[in-house]
Amino acid sequence: MRWSDFPKWGRYVADWAAEYHAGLRARPVRAQTKPGEIAAQLGAEAPEEGHPVEEVIADFERIVLPGITHWQHPRFFAYFPSNAAPASVLAEFFTTVMAPQCMLWQTSPAATEMETRVMDWLRHALGLPAPFHGVIQASASEATLAAVLTMREKALDWQGNAQGLSGQPRLRVYASEEVHTSIDRAIWIAGIGAENLVRIPTQGPLRGMDPAALDAAIKADLAAGHLPAGVIACTGGTGTGACDDISAVCDVAAAHGLYTHVDAAWAGSAMLCEEFRGLWEGVEKADSVVLNPHKWMGTQFDLSAHFVRAPEDLTRTLAIQPEYLKTHGADGIINYSEWSVPLGRRFRALKLWFLFRTYGLEGLRGRLRNHVQWSEELCERLRAAPGFEIVTEPVLSLFTFRYAPEGASDPDALNQRLVEAINDDGRIYLTQTRAEGQLVIRFQAGQFDCTREDVMMAHDVITEIATTLQES
After folding, report:
1. Does the N terminus or the C terminus of the chain have fewer Cβ atoms within 10 A?
2. Contact (Cβ atoms closer than 8 angstroms) between residue 305 and residue 120
3. Is 378 domain-assigned?
4. Which residues lie across from 3 on neighbouring strands?
5. 91: CB partners within 8 A, 6+ apart
6. Domain of 117?
7. Rounded CA gap, 285 and 281, in Å?
8. In degrees, to the nearest 5, what angle opens at C-alpha 271 toward C-alphas 148 and 174?
């Protein structure tokens, strides 16, 4: 394939994209293939000779599409959304065609300067104060790893990178059971070790970390000769939407001189709406915050917004400058590769710029508010349905429920059968989790193009299939 062929196939893909999105409601949300079914059609070895583009595209539609779970489906209510607003896709098209490597200012000045500006737009739109500076990471996992490495280095007086952890006191990091498993991975990769991630009990309807228990755990570790390094709080935890009391947690951490990182990967986008900001009240006291515009805001994966109060701590932890990466004769520039674990960087800021320019903040806020309102409405309809109970109340657009009709001998097994039957049916897609020791079913609304009718259909599908299971 040559660039002279590209206009034809580029137009084909643009038309295909519009048709794909227009027809998503007719497709099952979750892939219906069995393990190994796709691999069996791909061939054992790469072809020696090239094939015509027509043939490759035909095989894509025949082999690949049946094995895709459609994350852009308006009735994708599982996990959290991974959106791809059309304006963001268009920006990604431009980025893909140019394929710049944006690790340094000099390797693409527009990418660096746009990242600085749009992250400041986002900071202001979220209500974060001016001391915070933003950088785009690939995912919340990367941002959290950077935060853990920073808290490790600060606790070790900046000697960890140079000397390693051997012979050092046991570093301790504190979080509740409700945080995402990316925190566990960050602790592993940073060399701190799973045994040193101290789980703090939760309390209250939002299942937040108990500040008094946090304070007691830190004091106990100090008495034992350990070295507390930092606290990781969450707003909108993945399982049930748990929210820590950010203000109280930050106060405890500050009293002990500890770094605080706030994981708001999903819920952070909702903070574009001022009325939801009570869920992270006190966030201005944190040292760093992460949220994923590629979840609920509309940009497609990958684009994670990482805000830090003291960029110099982050760069002191991560920056390395061999001669070939130095930019001479340009003082005061930012090289964002020094703010992240990977050296290479894509031009992610462009899709956030396109998103803000084409929809505006008010357009984005309207979608967020609709998703929350529709989810609350669905929650009330399920609460009133025979045999159903709401286990955790809505946090923004996320709640959990359980089917427990009178006489059900094993509600956990019944709910597992229910979620599997729902996903096999294909009209909607849900996932399960555990809350208060029970297996429950999660619901969250957040796909960019979903409507109230899509959300209300979930009620019909859930209750219809539940009745069928009970009757069987």
Report:
1. C
2. no
3. no
4. none
5. 350, 351, 353, 354, 355
6. 101-346
7. 9
8. 25
Long-range contacts (CB closer than 8 Å, 24 or more residues apart) made by 164-172: 164/191, 165/191, 165/192, 168/227, 169/225, 169/226, 169/227, 170/196, 170/225, 170/226, 170/227, 171/196, 171/226, 171/227, 171/228, 171/229, 172/196, 172/198, 172/218, 172/221, 172/226, 172/227, 172/228, 172/229
Using DSSP's 3-state secondary structure scheme, residue 28 falls into: coil
DSSP 8-state code for residue 335: -
Q: pTM to 2 decimals?
A: 0.92
Q: Count the domains in the chain.
A: 1
Q: Beta strand pairing status for 208-209 and 227-234?
A: unpaired
The H or E element spanning position 271 is: none
How far is it, in rounded angstroms, from Cα 94 to Cα 441?
39
Question: For the residues of 56-125, what is the DSSP string, one character each?
Answer: HHHHIIIIIGGG---TT-TTB-SSS-----HHHHHHHHHHHHH----SSTTT-HHHHHHHHHHHHHHHHH
Cα 219 from Cα 255, distance rounded (Å)? 11
Maximum C-alpha span of the chain = 77
Q: Find out whether 354 and 90 touch, Cβ atoms under 8 Å.
A: yes
> For residue 458, is it within any domain?
no
- Residue 322, pLDDT > 70, answer no
Q: Are 401 and 165 in contact (CB under 8 A)?
A: no
DSSP sequence for 223-267: HTT-EEEEEEEEBS-TTT--B--HHHHHHHHHHTT-EEEEE-TTG
Q: Enter the tokens of residue 336.
A: 């964002």
pLDDT in tens, 357-407: 999 999 999 999 999 999 999 999 999 999 999 999 999 999 999 999 988
Contact 70, 298 (CB under 8 A): no
Q: What CA–CA distance (Å, rounded) separates 390 from 29? A: 24
Token pair in block for residue 303 = 């684009």
Say which amino acid occupies 44: A
**For 385, what's the count of Cα atoms within 13 Å in the CB-facing half-sphere?**
23
- Identify whether 116 is part of a domain: yes
CA R_g for the chain = 24
**Contact indicator for 73, 426 with CB cutoff of 8 Å:** no
Q: What is the CATH number of the domain that holds 168?
A: 3.40.640.10
Asked whether the beta carbons of 149 and 318 are under 8 A apart, the reply is: yes
Phi, psi of 209 (to 5 degrees): -60, 135
Give residue-wise pLDDT tens across range 271-319: 999 999 999 999 999 999 999 999 999 999 999 999 999 999 999 999 8
383: enclosing H helix or E strand: helix 349-384
pLDDT tens track for 291-303: 999 999 999 999 9
The answer to whether residue 340 is domain-embedded is: yes
